[in-house]
Amino acid sequence: MFTGIIEAVGSVTSVDNQQGDIRLRIHTAALDLSDVRLGDSIATNGVCLTVVELPGDGFVADVSRESLAHTQIGSWSKGTRVNLEKAMLPTTRMGGHIVTGHVDGLGTIKQRQADARSVRFVIAPPASLQKYIAAKGSITVDGVSLTANALTSEGFELNIVPHTAAETTLHSAQVGQKVHLEVDIIARYLEQLLHGGQSHADHSGKTQATASSIDQAFLAKNGFWK
């Protein structure tokens, strides 16, 4: 688990093909690795990667075909800059929100403009994720915990304050760029709750949620909805 508060910006030093998947080497720059052990997790641009080697100036991680299919890692090359965060501890301040490091989809930056000292972005998510994004709700973009200021016809709007821009890769993000998105996990569990945690396969073979007796009235009666 992570909080979405970036601890350092590192860079890719090598990308090695390994019989269909990839082995990455990441230079971690200012990230303190003194308490990191083999098998620990480090969020890298929002992707939870497992440390398999600790060469001294960074870490090495294997990236499966599943991860390659749902992230931008396959397009990374030597020099690609990445946001880094170590897994949270029980004593960690929850400065952001609960982040799992499992990318839900790729968004596209549609707008970027100055807003006083901040930068305002509009990002278009995949249609399947739009329902999980709420105005003033949490969203993770390339591993950064952010607040969706508003929903727009193109997607959702973000305001990046100077500190966040300076301490992450978002300062260089441009229109047309793809970014990793992870929606608030609470929205995911709420959907499962509303559907009773059940699913079925439709005629196309795709898994669909099955409706249950839990609705807004039920949630309101039991103190979950106002």
TrEMBL record:
<feature type="domain" description="Lumazine-binding">
    <location>
        <begin position="1"/>
        <end position="97"/>
    </location>
</feature>
<comment type="pathway">
    <text>Cofactor biosynthesis; riboflavin biosynthesis; riboflavin from 2-hydroxy-3-oxobutyl phosphate and 5-amino-6-(D-ribitylamino)uracil: step 2/2.</text>
</comment>
<dbReference type="Pfam" id="PF00677">
    <property type="entry name" value="Lum_binding"/>
</dbReference>
<dbReference type="InterPro" id="IPR023366">
    <property type="entry name" value="ATP_synth_asu-like_sf"/>
</dbReference>
<protein>
    <recommendedName>
        <fullName>Riboflavin synthase</fullName>
        <ecNumber>2.5.1.9</ecNumber>
    </recommendedName>
</protein>
<dbReference type="InterPro" id="IPR026017">
    <property type="entry name" value="Lumazine-bd_dom"/>
</dbReference>
<keyword id="KW-0686">Riboflavin biosynthesis</keyword>
<dbReference type="InterPro" id="IPR017938">
    <property type="entry name" value="Riboflavin_synthase-like_b-brl"/>
</dbReference>
<feature type="repeat" description="Lumazine-binding">
    <location>
        <begin position="1"/>
        <end position="97"/>
    </location>
</feature>
<keyword id="KW-0808">Transferase</keyword>
<feature type="repeat" description="Lumazine-binding">
    <location>
        <begin position="98"/>
        <end position="194"/>
    </location>
</feature>
<keyword id="KW-0677">Repeat</keyword>
<comment type="function">
    <text>Catalyzes the dismutation of two molecules of 6,7-dimethyl-8-ribityllumazine, resulting in the formation of riboflavin and 5-amino-6-(D-ribitylamino)uracil.</text>
</comment>
<dbReference type="GO" id="GO:0004746">
    <property type="term" value="F:riboflavin synthase activity"/>
</dbReference>
<feature type="domain" description="Lumazine-binding">
    <location>
        <begin position="98"/>
        <end position="194"/>
    </location>
</feature>
<dbReference type="InterPro" id="IPR001783">
    <property type="entry name" value="Lumazine-bd"/>
</dbReference>
